[in-house]
Specification:
It is a single chain. The chain has four helices and six strands, in the order H-E-H-E-E-H-E-E-E-H. With 155 residues, the protein is an alpha+beta fold. This is HMA domain-containing protein.
Amino acid sequence: MGVVSTFECLSSVWSHRHTKEKKKKRLLQTVELKVRMDCDGCELKVKKALSSMKGVQTVEINRKQQKVTVTGFVEGSKVLKKAKSTGNKAEIWPYIPFNLVAHPYAALSYDKKAPPGFVRYVEPLAAPPAYGGGKHEDQLAALFSDDNPNACSVM
């Protein structure tokens, strides 16, 4: 009996340890998607598909903005994949409020299709180097130098 009880104890510890590793602790998340929905049928199809996912608590749809907000213990990539499986075009919500952007009318961030008060989110570009700090500026200055016999002579 001593060997069997020891074996059972070890096997319970072993199985308990592996079940802990397999379970991931999911956090409550809000995932916003842009899903193309033209009619009530499309809206119902998307809502039904996303509501059936494990861990989803609420699904809110704004058809005018074509925005779907899913709240629950879910991963954004899985929600996006499920939304695409309905046959509608879907992507992660690409817009941010207008007042958070330094240059909202720049070519990259301005989007005619954006809902009112929103612009497309674009990663900020790196600032250009200060004048005289780069090799490129030195080459340009040498092109118009009086010391360079092959320089451009525009008068």
